[in-house]
Structures are given as structure tokens and as C-alpha cells.
Amino acid sequence: MANSDVNLVVQRGTVHAIVGENGAGKSTLMKTLYGMHRPDSGTVRIDGKAAVLTSPSDAIERGVGMVHQHFQLADNLTVLENVVLGSEPRKGVRLDFPEARRRILEISDRYGLDARPDVLVEELGVGERQRVEILKVLYRGARTLILDEPTAVLVPQEVDELFDALRELKSEGLAIIFISHKLDEVLKVADEITVIRRGSTVATVLPGEVTSRELAELMVGSELPTAETRESTVTDVAELTVSDLSLVDRTGRTLLDDVSFTIHRGEVLGIAGVEGNGQAELVESLMGMRHVSAGTVRLGEIDVTDWSTRRRREGGMAYIAEDRIRHGLLLESPLWENRMLGHQTVPPNSKGALLDIRGAKRDTERIVTDYDVRTPSIDVLASALSGGNQQKLIVGREMSGDPTMLIASHPTRGVDVGAQAAIWDLLRDARAKGLAVLLISADLDELIGLSDSIKVILRGRLVADADPATVTPEQLGSAMTGAEGAA
Ligand SMILES: Nc1ncnc2c1ncn2[C@@H]1O[C@H](COP(=O)(O)OP(=O)(O)OP(=O)(O)O)[C@@H](O)[C@H]1O
Ligand SMILES: [Mg+2]
Q1: Does residue 343 carry a pLDDT above 70?
Q2: In a domain, 300, yes or no
Q3: Number of separate domains in the chain
Q4: What pLDDT, on the 0 to 100 scale, is given for residue 93?
Q5: 6 domain residue, yes or no
Q6: Is there a domain that residue 155 lies in?
Q7: Quick one: which of 150, 173, 289, 298 could link to 284 by a disulfide (CB 3.0–4.6 Å)?
Q8: What is the pTM of this model?
Q9: Which residues of 403-434 are buried (b: 16+ CB within 10 A; e: fewer)?
Q10: Protein residue with its CA nearest to atom 24 in ligand 1
Q11: Cα–Cα distance, 360 to 337 (Å, whole number)
Q12: Which protein residue's CA is at the shortest distance from atom 14 of ligand 1?
């Protein structure tokens, strides 16, 4: 059962945060409030009136809007088109675009959302896309706004902007439900916080009454281990050497411009950047998923520039993809098949030329235990796991087989604080044994905390170095947006 005995009262004019471990039932609860699941028992009231919500359109009609964690905008349409899609104002039979534009600008002005109606969504950064999602929900007249992990993909400056908008919205009397694993953020923005454990609400507290540590303990139901201190394990043996790498797309646009760096055994190199500045292209080039236009990639002493992805994996490279839904998992396959994905040709998934299903299943059991993947069995489909548990499965798979080089994009995105600390420990242990890591993360505390050195990427170029021992998240955030004199 995903939810049982949930009691939640959200007041108008407040931000109500929901926190809980991965798989606790936060998203399930929100989908119920948004009409995507029918509750077996219990009632939902909106403004005192019982509401039966059988579909999202029921919810929208009653003023409930939801921004999902994965954006649902159409890239090749403009902001205006995305916002009005599905709820077009009509003049007779024709769409009334001037009226729609007027309303969009009015809403955007009122809440400081800075909308640019005629720009294509594909040209927008992540923060702006998210504001369009919010605008879309407000455009439909939402008075209750549900945000499922909205800050996971934002840099600190964008988080501040989002919080400004939320303050504006609540002063207009909206009710806002906010889910996040970042407890310091929750304490900053929430008026009330409800903790969910194993599908049930266990407490509602005021931010002034608890520390983030106490909040974490309420979520887990026990004390958290303290994070250990770290010491450098960087060696002078180069594991990955990237020289003058450039990537130009079919239209002649430069995506990566003369990128060079070296990662040694036992070293974590962090890449800081606002999403969309070439990180994805860099990672895909390193994994052999794109053909680079110039430059070389060497693994140890070997030039692997022309190697296929499979060969690179067999050569010791592991890869945690940025988008777990699109590149990391087969949602409609059981967990053990997902264990084999991308690793079919190596033990324990194969014996000689044959697949070894027994071996794969046994090793999936090991990952589920070692990485604390909360699941009834290894035979359930990956789609049945909560977001954070899907992520843990991927990290476990990629860390198996003792890689020498790990390319990690947002390795702990969406995992709860306890699981995050556990993954950090596992990465540090592997690093101490010589693992080299390229780390990309929007979580700047993670980037600073795990990295031995940091480089800033901007428009496909490495533009600055930062010292993780001294740099602050704010300084790093400024360097990422290209502000003068930062880092
Ligand atoms: N489509 C589904 N089919 C079966 N079970 C599901 C499905 N989606 C979620 N569950 C189960 O419901 C429980 C709650 O999942 P939910 O996604 O609500 O967790 P969550 O609190 O949002 O976690 P996270 O922080 O990882 O996103 C989990 O045990 C999960 O395995
Ligand atoms: Mg969730």
C-alpha cells in the first residue's frame, strides 16, 4: 500500500512542505490530490467541500494544479503555445492569441515570472522552463499549487527566484504544497512541514521548532549517521585525459569548445555549470555516444576516442546518466533486467557468449541490499519504484564490476538525505581504492563536498577553476552564470 492513514491540512496563503524518505509515498499522495489515483478510503476537501477527483481535469476544475518533477513542455512550441495548449481561449472557433498573450503577461508580471511568450521552449534554461510550468498551472486558474521536487534541478540563484515567486503566490492566498529532499530549503520556505513515513503522515511541525537534523530523524525514525571527514586520495596516475575536445552539431553550432582536463586515480573532478552549457554533450562524448569533431580521449595510456560505448564500458568506464527515465532504465522491465542493461556482455550477467540470468538476479539482490533499494522484490517493474529508489538501483549497477572511471551526472538527484550520505560514502570508499570520477551535479553542496577540484563550464567552454576547500555555493553559482570576478 502506497498511502494509508494520511492526514494533511493545507491552509490558504501558506507553503506546506512534504518531506519523507524515498518511497515514503509523497508523489503517490500528490497524484491522488491531482486526480491521478483514486483513494480506496478517506476524503479530500477543498475549501471545506468534499471533492471527488477522478482525473487531473477534475482537479484543475477545482483549482488544483501540479508541476511534475519531469517537465512536460513541448520543446518545439513557444511559451505562449505551451501555456495555452489544452485550454485555448476561443473567439468563435478561432484561438484568441492576443487575449492569451495579455493574460500570460499579466500573470507573469504579478508573480515576477519573467515570461517571454514568443520564445521557443527549447531555447529556455531549466529555471525558466519551470516558471513556464508554473505559469501554465496559474493560467488554468489554480488556487492550490503542487510542486514535486521543483528545486532538484535549480542552481541557488534560481532557487531564490522560485522562492520569491512562491511568497508572492501565497500572499495572494494560494495554497502551495512543496516537496523537497533539501531540508535546509524546506526550513527556509515552508510555513508548515508534514513528515511522511511508510505511506502515513507522522507529524506536522513548524520550521521554527525543528532543525534539519531533527527533521531527518523524523523521516527515518532513527538517528542519522554523521558524515565522515575526508582526506585527499588523489594520485599522480592519469586515468582520463581529455585533450582539445570539440563538438560541433549538424547546423555548425559549437557545443564543446576546446575542452581539456585530466582526472587521476583517486580523484573526483567536479564540473559546475547551469544545465544546458555542454555538460550533457561532454558526458556523451566521453561515453562514446557522440562523435567528437576534434580532440582525443585517453583512458590510462590508451586512446579510446574512436571506441564504442560498449567497449568503453568493458574497458572500465561506468556511467550514471543525467536522465534516469530516458537513458538509465527500462521502466517496463523487472529490476534484474535493468541490472543487465548496458552490462550484458560482462559477468555476472554473462558467461562466455551466453547471458547468465541467475548471476544477474543474484547480483540484483546484492545491489538491493547494499544500496537499500526499497522494493518488494527484484521481479517488480522499474516503474513501480519511487524516483529515489530508481536512482539507487542505477548507482548500484554502475558501481558494480569495480569500474576505474565513473562518469556521474547528478548521482544523488532525488534521493533522500540518508541515501545521499550512503552514496557519498560508497563513492568516497571507491575513490580511496583508486576510482577516478567526473562529477556533474546541480547540488552545489554535493559538488563542493565530494570534489577534489572543480571546473566551471559555460557555453561549452571550461572557463574557470574553483577550489572546493574554499569556494562557497554562492560564489560557484555566480561563476556558473558568467558573473564577473567570481570564484
Ligand atoms: N506505479 C506504481 N506501481 C506500484 N507501486 C508503485 C508505483 N509507483 C509508486 N509505487 C510504490 O509506492 C510507494 C511510494 O512511492 P512514491 O513514488 O510515492 O514515493 P516518494 O515518497 O515520492 O519517493 P521519492 O522521494 O523517491 O520520489 C513506493 O513503495 C513505490 O514502490
Ligand atoms: Mg517522488
Answers
A1: yes
A2: yes
A3: 2
A4: 55
A5: no
A6: yes
A7: 289
A8: 0.85
A9: bbbbbbbbbbbbbbbbbbbbbbebbbebbeeb
A10: 22
A11: 8
A12: 25
